[in-house]
Design brief:
Blueprint: H1 6-13, H2 15-30, H3 37-65, H4 69-93, H5 100-128, E1 131-132, H6 135-154, H7 169-193, E2 202-205, E3 208-212, H8 230-264, H9 270-280, H10 282-293, H11 297-322, H12 336-353, E4 357-358, H13 360-378
Helix pairs in contact: 2-3, 2-8, 3-4, 3-8, 3-10, 4-8, 4-11, 5-9, 5-10, 5-11, 5-12, 5-13, 6-7, 6-11, 6-12, 7-11, 8-9, 10-11, 12-13
């Protein structure tokens, strides 16, 4: 590679560059075909590689544009492609997939608000005893998630205009408008009006202590790291999108194998939505855990609550529009068990967020709720 620009030489030899490209190639070769178990296993390997590459490129972009824009880029990119996957599976699944959007969105909320939050607090508390974050921004994000989840997933179980856990057309239109409006208002608050509420904060000591700031302002950039150039950031953005497309596409390829396992094990159909959400949210989970290990808990919480919010705020309006041509009812209302889990999650998350500090106990509570969700998903 003599005479080649050093930047492109490093780019060509980096696994984070080749993994998304190879994963997209595997996706293109396997898409729309009936593939043997061996190829399913190979696709799973490239799926894992694409997840790790997505995390790397998301961190490059986050470092270049700063917080909270960095976490917003990853959350929105993953959710947009997740919504496309939900629509695709709903259309191809017919009436049997009428509850797939509900199951996947609820799974995303529980994974982010309990799984990602719990793991992030655990990593931070293990290293510094106390995890600190901005209560103002995190509280606003949690309030938005709780409102969106209640309007979109709880109310349909109690409305009486139509039978079943579904909205009437006017009710669905309102839920769609409210979802996109609240999500847009939150993004405006997070990135422009009150951006300082969503920036990482420092502790006064290596092992914890009261929440503090540097120079009176929250820390917004990772220290001691090379600042990416515009070219590197643009390349990482392109590779991030390629990796996310590969992640979601390969997750769809893995879906038949997942459905086969679900049927063989006689598990509920909702377990398919849980498995798909777990696969799709892997990049955000790894990125959040890595940020928490660096004591940047606010970045982790931005990713967690931002992903939950984007999942509802973008999925419900899209599903509402798609329902104009989809056959069968659109089931959005949760059952009693899931409503209890959601309500308990909101209460616990509120008590976690209000102090702006968390310990291993709060991490354990969230992870216990996440484990309960997984258990009830396979054994309702």
């Amino acid at each position: 590679m003599k005479g080649v620009n050093p930047f492109f030489r490093r780019l060509a030899t980096s696994w984070t560059t080749t993994a998304p490209i190879l994963a997209v190639i595997v996706l293109a070769l396997a898409w729309g075909r009936t593939i043997p178990p061996l190829v399913v296993g190979i696709a799973a390997v490239f799926l894992a590689a694409a997840v790790l590459a997505a995390v790397h490129h998301a961190e490059v972009i986050a470092h270049r544009v700063g917080e909270p824009f960095g976490s917003l880029v990853l959350a929105v990119a993953v959710t947009v492609i997740e919504v496309a996957l939900i629509i695709s599976l709903t259309v191809s699944g017919g009436p049997a997939a009428s509850s797939l959007a509900r199951d996947t969105v609820f799974a995303a909320v529980m994974i982010t608000c309990n799984g990602i939050v719990g793991l992030s607090l655990l990593m931070a508390a293990l290293r510094r005893r106390v995890a600190v974050f901005n209560a103002e921004g995190t509280g606003a994000a949690l309030a938005t998630v709780a409102t969106l989840a209640t309007l979109s997933l709880v109310l349909p179980a109690f409305t009486t205009t139509v039978s079943g856990p579904a909205f009437a057309p006017a009710q669905l239109a309102f839920a769609a408008f409210a979802s996109i409006a609240l999500y847009g208002l939150f993004v405006l608050t997070q990135t422009i009006r009150h951006r300082e509420y969503f920036l990482p904060v420092e502790t006064t000591g290596e092992r914890g202590g009261r929440q503090g700031t540097k120079g009176g302002k929250p820390r917004s950039e990772a220290e001691h790291a090379a600042f990416p150039t515009n070219r590197a950031a643009m390349v990482s953005l392109a590779l991030l999108l390629a990796a996310l497309i590969a992640v979601v596409g390969l997750a769809k390829i893995e879906a038949p194998a997942i459905e086969t396992v679900v049927r063989t094990a006689r598990l509920p159909q909702a377990a398919v939505g849980v498995a798909i959400a777990l696969l799709v949210l892997l990049p955000e989970t790894l990125a959040a855990v890595r940020a928490a290990r660096r004591a940047r808990v606010q970045v982790s919480l931005n990713l967690a609550f931002g992903s939950a919010m984007a999942s509802i705020g973008l999925t419900i309006p899209t599903i509402a529009a798609a329902s104009l041509w989809l056959e069968g009812p659109l089931l959005l209302g949760l059952g009693p068990t899931h409503i209890v889990l959601l309500g308990l999650t909101v209460v616990v998350a509120t008590l976690t967020v209000v102090p702006g500090r968390a310990t291993l106990l709060q991490a354990g509570v969230h992870l216990t709720l996440f484990a309960a969700f997984l258990l009830l998903a396979v054994s309702p």
